[in-house]
């Protein structure tokens, strides 16, 4: 399926996580904030590049981005609307909530490197099980910027112990979509008390001989929205990403 | 000489280009703009990452940065003051010009990888000749952002033809300080009509068997200031950089 075809399905109402969709293409997190917070957010991203690698920024009020030939308000499977840091709604179409003063940011997503993991013989459990990736709010704080602060959010993939080095090596080549893991092993060291109960997405089995491996996650901006309570924000529903037209190789380093 | 010692000399009045100073440490370009232009500039940098890799951003009104234990108004060898896009003054101490509404950005500088070039057997002519690096305004336009637009500025180093691949390979490992060259060979293709007359810095000899190699340059923000004429800006004097405490290896990729 091409990114264009996937976006047409999402626009028509399909609400599914996008992991495994459109192999070979870059996926992105969405965060749209009022213009008066745009500098704070771009600075937050600059200071937290592992979790917030900015791929594209739309002009104020614009609903199109250069890496995606579509409408940012309709072409993702689902959206979250925040008012004063509270989740006010989850919707499949954000048009009635969008405002002219919003600046939309697209942030790299680790779904982008999952094809490369599979190609290298590293299994991806949530693709095998057809579920959403598990994501966790950690006890690690991001570097604040202006009025924005909040915890690092991570995604987790269980990796057979002998494949962990390969998982690190492969994902290191994709810094623009979170790159190398931030943590390998003990969830408690990240302040995660129950690995079976993710804060976003769905749990996955961790089998004997597997180690949980944690990557920085583009839900981090939404955790900052929840922690910092700006008046208004729109994000994607976690795991329900913008599927862009950019090739994954465009974000690969040697 | 340590970065701290170098900064003390500059603070005391020494005005020299910093190429070759404090090998092993990261050098940075300075651009300070009024807060109301800060988002436009950070977006300009995001859209032009080869020329404007942001290393650090000081809070509004702050004159300290996290990668440099010193005062941004005094610890560079020289500064340029711009009013409405015109160069109004070049000074060794920017304190009397600094304003409380300025946001200071530090942008990676290619001087940072010159030690690695030398270590790899690639000569650096302006270090040999004790002169400032030659820099040129090109005919290549940056991607605009908000009220900021302008041409790409490049630095040039003549490289023996057989060492060009090594020069590309070595500098590719330092994307945060401009990374790989943007152009190898014909200056005319970049709209440079007289290689002997750089727009900034000083000319260097190009000897038989050498090819001019061009890297994106952190004077690009100042070219955008000249082209876009914001009410006020402060930059470093080209070639007269902020010598930071960050190791060059901190910005190296495998």
UniProtKB/TrEMBL annotation, chains A, B:
Keywords of the record: Lyase
Sequence intervals crossing the membrane: none
First and last residue of the signal peptide: none
Top-level taxon: Bacteria
Record-linked NCBIfam families: PRK05463.1
PANTHER family documented for this protein: D-GLUTAMATE CYCLASE, MITOCHONDRIAL (PTHR32022)
Name of the protein described by the UniProt record: Putative hydro-lyase EFW17_09685
Organism taxonomic ancestry: Bacteria, Bacillati, Actinomycetota, Actinomycetes, Streptosporangiales
């Amino acid at each position: 399926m091409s990114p264009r075809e996937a976006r047409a399905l999402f626009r028509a109402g399909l609400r599914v996580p996008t992991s495994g969709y459109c192999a070979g293409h870059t996926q992105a997190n969405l965060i749209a904030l009022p213009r008066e917070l745009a500098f704070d957010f771009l600075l937050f991203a600059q200071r937290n590049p592992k979790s917030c690698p900015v791929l594209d920024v739309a002009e104020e009020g614009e609903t199109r981005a250069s890496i995606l030939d579509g409408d940012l308000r309709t072409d993702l499977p689902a959206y979250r609307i925040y008012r004063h840091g509270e989740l006010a709604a989850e919707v499949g179409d954000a048009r009635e909530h969008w405002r002219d003063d919003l600046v939309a940011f697209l942030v790299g997503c680790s779904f982008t490197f999952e094809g490369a993991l599979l190609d290298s013989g590293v299994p991806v459990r949530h693709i095998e099980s057809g579920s959403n990736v598990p994501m966790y709010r950690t006890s690690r704080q991001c570097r604040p910027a202006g009025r924005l602060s909040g915890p690092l959010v991570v995604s987790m993939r269980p990796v057979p112990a002998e494949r962990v080095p390969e998982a690190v090596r492969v994902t290191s080549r994709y810094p623009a979509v979170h790159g190398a893991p931030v943590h390998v092993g003990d969830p408690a060291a990240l302040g995660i008390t129950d690995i079976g109960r993710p804060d976003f997405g769905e749990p996955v089995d961790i089998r004997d001989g597997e180690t949980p491996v944690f990557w920085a996650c583009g839900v981090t901006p939404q955790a900052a929205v929840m922690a910092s309570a700006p008046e208004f924000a729109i994000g994607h529903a976690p795991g329900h990403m913008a599927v862009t037209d950019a090739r994954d190789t465009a974000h690969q380093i040697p």
